[in-house]
Amino acid sequence: MNSRPDKDVLDALKAVVGDAGFREEAADLEPHLTEWRGLFQGRTPLMLMPSSTAEVSAIMKICSTHGVAVVPQGGNTGLAGGAIPGIDGVDAQILLSTSRLNQVTDIDAENYTMTAGAGCLLAEIQSAAQDAGLFFPLSLAAEGSCQIGGNISTNAGGTNVLRFGNTRELVLGLEVVLPDGSIYDDLRGLRKDNTGYDLKQLFIGAEGTLGIITAATLKLFPAARATATAWLAVESPAAAVSLYREARRRVGDELVAFELMPRIAIDMVLEHIPGTREPLDAAQPWYVLLELASARNQAVTDEQLTDLLGNCLDRGLVQDGVVASSEAQRGDLWRLRHSISEAQKNAGASIKHDISVPVSGMPEFLERANELVEARVPGIRPVPFGHLGDGNLHYNVSQPDDMKAEAFLALWEPLNELVHTLAVELGGSFSAEHGIGSLKVAELERLGDPVKLRLMRSVKQALDPGGIMNPGKVLRS
Amino acid sequence: MNSRPDKDVLDALKAVVGDAGFREEAADLEPHLTEWRGLFQGRTPLMLMPSSTAEVSAIMKICSTHGVAVVPQGGNTGLAGGAIPGIDGVDAQILLSTSRLNQVTDIDAENYTMTAGAGCLLAEIQSAAQDAGLFFPLSLAAEGSCQIGGNISTNAGGTNVLRFGNTRELVLGLEVVLPDGSIYDDLRGLRKDNTGYDLKQLFIGAEGTLGIITAATLKLFPAARATATAWLAVESPAAAVSLYREARRRVGDELVAFELMPRIAIDMVLEHIPGTREPLDAAQPWYVLLELASARNQAVTDEQLTDLLGNCLDRGLVQDGVVASSEAQRGDLWRLRHSISEAQKNAGASIKHDISVPVSGMPEFLERANELVEARVPGIRPVPFGHLGDGNLHYNVSQPDDMKAEAFLALWEPLNELVHTLAVELGGSFSAEHGIGSLKVAELERLGDPVKLRLMRSVKQALDPGGIMNPGKVLRS
User: Do A429 and B110 touch (CB under 8 A)?
Assistant: First the structure.
């Protein structure tokens, strides 16, 4: 099956979707064949853009009959090359874009649910919820261009996981077209349903290797009425973990963000990002950006934050801090956090890791990871930052000042290996948010439990016996 | 494989667990062979009580080699006959009790997680969390005798689903012994991990048909500091749904219980349960028991509830109400709710249904279900009550006053069929909390999507090719 499909088959596929539903010119295909960081470049003979579940079903019937591989793609914002067809350079795999499956078909305010097509942009879903006076919590940097089907297929994380969970926890129902074209319809807004295996869980996070998600019923939440944000200095990651424990204990569910940043990250931001400024009087080794959101009024929420900080300052858990007194100041604090990746680009080459460990294990992880990478590359500059409340940090390392970028980047794999092995040794994950895609298939084989890999292959074989769904992603084909 | 295993095989199994680890006398086996409502009576040649995961693994290796079927059992508190071996009257199936896998091995307060053996009682898990100043939210009537492994295998619901989700949402990691004896070890306390298919989801809610859950890592939460409870009169189920929507909007995550009850249920309780009393001055058609829990202090939480009720009374959503002013009064209100099942037993024979629909669809469900059962059995008395906030009601119907109990109970299946079919037609479920077990296998075949059933069989075949795990439960073997 690793060759260009016959013209007859391609014509039959085009006939399913009509003229508006396919692209085959190189210029049209190009944006869909390049992973946005440039790590992968693909090929395809044809991009299909079905406008209904029935069309997706008809496409899969043809493809399964003829053994043609299909790669689903949403907004193409993934970071692991999971949505790029033909990365082996062969134009054998059809690209199936979900972009025209983009209708919000139902908002049920009394049930706190929304049903939407896979091609809806995440930002559109957020707005539709907001227009109904409700809230959809999934939020991430690519929200203006990523699609909800892709978010579900990759079990996206983002900035609201601490309170609301990953995408998996936001999905109540799914519609999926299976490799043989049959439609698994579980598009229901039920909080409780124990009638057999919960099969939708298999498709969530499967990165398109088991079927094509065409629509979903999502959980909505009450909109928050008040937000309170603080920028706090702490002595160490261990102090940050103690602060996290205490903050959750004292404010419960109102704690919605708990981000950790080292001083070096703030130095990079202040040096390279115009308009940013130091929030506290004196430099401190570590910072926490903490946010509360509440259904109560602003005054009560502010008081809650003030009480928490007063207590933590008294007990020495926090060295210094500032509470945002306006929406503009809140924006400034978040901008420091969100500018780290961009600032780091100006500080030479960097190598990124998306690890998680139990929150309690983060201080040990940081200490040992720093030792390991420093021993391998003296002068290396670790810039670990991110969602400490989720046990998930972006453990990014910048090159030594006196090293050539190429020489440093040549160490990508050995540095990955050191960091990933340590995370797994500490009961953690080498891909907390971004998935496996093409990028980490070998790493999953190296670090994954053999029993897990065997089970995964059994499931893949059971659901996609012809091996036509996004072959080579997640599992080697 | 449907005959008593050979003596050699039974001896080999006994040797794995030693003298303390098995039972074979009828008197010892009896409590494990009867489903507690008496709907199923089973048989087994041997009950094994392994004390370690390694022993479970050794047992499964022997059973898979010899094609011996194994039925896992926790506290034997299920309501669908899922944990009873040999309900066909043949002593072919080994009973594997998880009761000695009962150690809490780790509480990580900074990570808000606990790791515990499958045999821990739910009440022990709750206490262990409480002793650490934390909270495990799963709570249900059988919590003093059910085991966490069984709760996970059945994806138990209970009274805290509105805020905390079903058991599935409380599980971060699992250890599972597979049918061939290999051990799937995913016992990790990670909030984010996107490294391949999330296989633990398959075992949660599979009722022991895919493997044996031996341990789990569970999410813990901050303990609530304050609780506020109200008993409210509403005009109709539609008014209750509007009240639910408004209550969630105004108090957000602090809304932890929202139970609906009809007047007839309260009449039955007041008549048959000593020491109960009418909470409001005048009888009303419907009641809501609403509870808030908060990390804030009691005064702030009481004020939140008072504000909510004042607003809802002003707007006519609520007709009358009382707020519990003491823990004793709170207990009295909950006792009215929890006594309904018992009271109903005194009002003649009843037939129970465990249905869910979207919250918004509940008024239509109740109206149509009442019409259907009344048309079938004139004078029938519907007593629908339960977790309206989860879209889950116990739609129980009591016999007409002038009918013989036997005549009424003979209508069990046709009444089930009417009610279940309606629930599914309205996008709901015919088994919201209790699962399929043995009781609802035929109903799943009748009402389940054929694509779903086919997929379930594929998954079962892939994970348990020999068909030795709890055969005949969930899916016909």
Answer: no
